[in-house]
Amino acid sequence: MIGYGDKARTQCEVVRLFRETHPDLPPLNQGTISKIEAQYREMGHVGKVPSKRQAVVDDDTKLNLLLALEENPITPARQLARDNWTYSCYFPDRFLDFPNI
């Protein structure tokens, strides 16, 4: 709806045009349009961006992993995860689906 070149619209015009085009939808405000435009300029699309999940591992588990790596630095990551029950932290919905390695 913003347009390019000679057809560029201001954010206020975009808000007005959206309200006229989609009266059945909740109205957008200029702040929403600004966020959408900023995301488009940054990423090239306005689709949902998958969030980066942080691993939930307590300090004891981290220490156990580091100690295991110190004992045997070539231990595979999957074995370390299995031995320390970190699969349940990273993939709680697929924990039972993992094959025994």
From TrEMBL:
Name listed for the protein in its UniProt record: DUF4817 domain-containing protein
Annotated organism of origin: Aromia moschata
Lineage start: Eukaryota, Metazoa, Ecdysozoa, Arthropoda, Hexapoda
